[in-house]
Amino acid sequence: MISSLRSRQLISGFGVIMVGIVMLGAMLYWFSLSYKIEQKQNELKEISYDVLGFLNFNVGNGRFEILPDADMQANAKKMIGDHKLDDVTQNHFAYVLDANTGKVVWSASTLSKPNDLVEDDYYLRFNLEKKQAGSFEPDFAKLHPLPPQNSARLEDDPLIKQMYNQQYVLAIQTFSQPNFGLYQFVVGVAIADIEKEMQDMRQKFAVLFFLSAVLVLIAQLALSFWVVAPIKEFEKEVKSIEAGEKETIEDNYPEELLPVKNALNGLLSYEKGQKQRYKDTLDDLAHSIKTPLTAMQHQLDQLHRDAAEHDPYVGIAINVFEKQIERIREIIGHQLRRAMVTNQGAMILSQPIRPVLFRLRETLQKVYRDKPFEIRITADEYAKCRMDAEDMMELFGNLLNNACRFCQDIVEVSAHQDNNMLVIDIDDDGLGFPIDNPSKLLQRGVREDSKSDGQGIGMAVSTEIVSAIGGKIELLVSPYVGARVRIHLPV
C-alpha cells in the first residue's frame, strides 16, 4: 500500500488523465476513420449511379453494354477514365457479376466486350453476401480480396501482391433480370491511402501522448505541492507544539483539515487540564502526607534522645523506623514522578538516547567501581525515541542497573530502527533470565534474585513507562549467553 498522500494523488491524477487522453485519442481515431470510410462510400455511391446511367442490359443477347450512341459511348469512356475504372491495377474498379455463376459479365476495364475478357484472375473477387434485388441504394462492405486461382502471380508480381494484401471499400447493388437471374454490380476502391493517413495519425498521436504525459506529470507535480502544502504547514505546527513553542494549532486550513485541527486542539486542551489536575492533586497529597511524617520523625527524635541511651533495643527500633520513614518518602517521591509519566498520544519531542546512556554509564561505573566490567554503548547519534527525559532516565537507569548488578564482564547497549519503532537491546553476560516464564519478572514485586536489595518493582516500573508511550519490553537471551532486554519505543 502506498503510504504517501502525495504519491497517491500523483498516481491517481496522472492515471485518470492518461486514461482520459487515451480514450479521447481512440475515439478521435475511430471517428476519423469512420468519417473517411463514409466519404469513400459516398464517393462510390455517386460513381455507381454515374456508371449505371450509361449501362444497359440487352435482353436480346443477355449482355450488359454501354448504350449504342456515339455521344453516350464517348461520355461513358470519359467518365470511366476520370474515375480510373478502366484499369483494376489503379485500385479502382467496377464490374457486374452473375450471382449464380460468379463470372464477370461486364467490366468497366473492357468496356462491354464479354467475349474478349481477359483471364479471370485479372479481377479482384470478394466474398460477397448474396441478397435478393431490392432497394436501388447500394450496400457497403469493407473486405480483403479472395486469393487468386493462380497463386504464383502473388510471388511473381509485387504489384499484384500489394493489390491482394490491401483492403477495399465496396458499393454493391443487386438487381434481377427476368429469365436471366440475379446480377451484382460492384464498384470498389482501395483504402490504402486511408490506412496510410491513419498510420500517420497513430504516429502523431503517440508523440502527442508522450508530450502530454510529460506536461501532465509536470502539472501534477506542481499541483501536488499546492495540494499537500497545507498538510506540510499542519505538520510544522504540530512539531512546534512538540517542541513547546506553541500550545495549540492556530493557522487557518482547508475545510478537510478543520475536523483534525479541532480534535487535536481539544485533545491538547484536555491533556493540559488533566496534567494540571494531576499536579494539583499530587501536590495536595504530598502536602497532606508531609505533616504526619514530620510528626512521626519528631517523635522518633524525641525517643532517640530520651530512651535510646538507656535501652539499646529501643535505639535499634528507632533506626528501623527512621529508615522506613525515609523509604516512605522515597516511594512517595517516586510515585509522584510515576504519575506524571507521559501517556500515549501526548506531544513529546523525539530525542536522542546516547546522552542519557553516557550519563548513566558514568554513574554506574562509580556505583560498581569495585566490580571489573565494561559498559559498551554502540547506539549512534541518530537513535532517537519519543519519550519524556525523566522517564527515559528512569527506564534506562533501572535496566542498566540490573544488567550491571548481574553481569560478569560486559554490558552492551545497541539500537536500530524498525519501521516507526526504535529497538534497543541491553545485553549482559550474567546468568540470564529463568527458562520457564521469564515474563513474570515484568510483574510488580517479582525479583529473580531474592537476596538482593530492592522492592522488585524496577522491571514493572520500566514496563509501565514503556507501555504508557505505546512500546513494549521483551526478555530474551543475549549473544553473551546472558540476559537481553529488548525495548521497542516509538520514534
UniProtKB/TrEMBL annotation:
<dbReference type="InterPro" id="IPR003661">
    <property type="entry name" value="HisK_dim/P_dom"/>
</dbReference>
<dbReference type="InterPro" id="IPR004358">
    <property type="entry name" value="Sig_transdc_His_kin-like_C"/>
</dbReference>
<keyword id="KW-0808">Transferase</keyword>
<keyword id="KW-1133">Transmembrane helix</keyword>
<keyword id="KW-0418">Kinase</keyword>
<keyword id="KW-0812">Transmembrane</keyword>
<dbReference type="InterPro" id="IPR050428">
    <property type="entry name" value="TCS_sensor_his_kinase"/>
</dbReference>
<dbReference type="GO" id="GO:0000155">
    <property type="term" value="F:phosphorelay sensor kinase activity"/>
</dbReference>
<dbReference type="InterPro" id="IPR036890">
    <property type="entry name" value="HATPase_C_sf"/>
</dbReference>
<dbReference type="InterPro" id="IPR005467">
    <property type="entry name" value="His_kinase_dom"/>
</dbReference>
<feature type="transmembrane region" description="Helical">
    <location>
        <begin position="205"/>
        <end position="229"/>
    </location>
</feature>
<dbReference type="InterPro" id="IPR003594">
    <property type="entry name" value="HATPase_dom"/>
</dbReference>
<feature type="transmembrane region" description="Helical">
    <location>
        <begin position="12"/>
        <end position="31"/>
    </location>
</feature>
<dbReference type="Pfam" id="PF02518">
    <property type="entry name" value="HATPase_c"/>
</dbReference>
<keyword id="KW-0597">Phosphoprotein</keyword>
<dbReference type="GO" id="GO:0005524">
    <property type="term" value="F:ATP binding"/>
</dbReference>
<dbReference type="GO" id="GO:0005886">
    <property type="term" value="C:plasma membrane"/>
</dbReference>
<protein>
    <recommendedName>
        <fullName>histidine kinase</fullName>
        <ecNumber>2.7.13.3</ecNumber>
    </recommendedName>
</protein>
<keyword id="KW-0472">Membrane</keyword>
<dbReference type="InterPro" id="IPR036097">
    <property type="entry name" value="HisK_dim/P_sf"/>
</dbReference>
<feature type="domain" description="Histidine kinase">
    <location>
        <begin position="284"/>
        <end position="491"/>
    </location>
</feature>
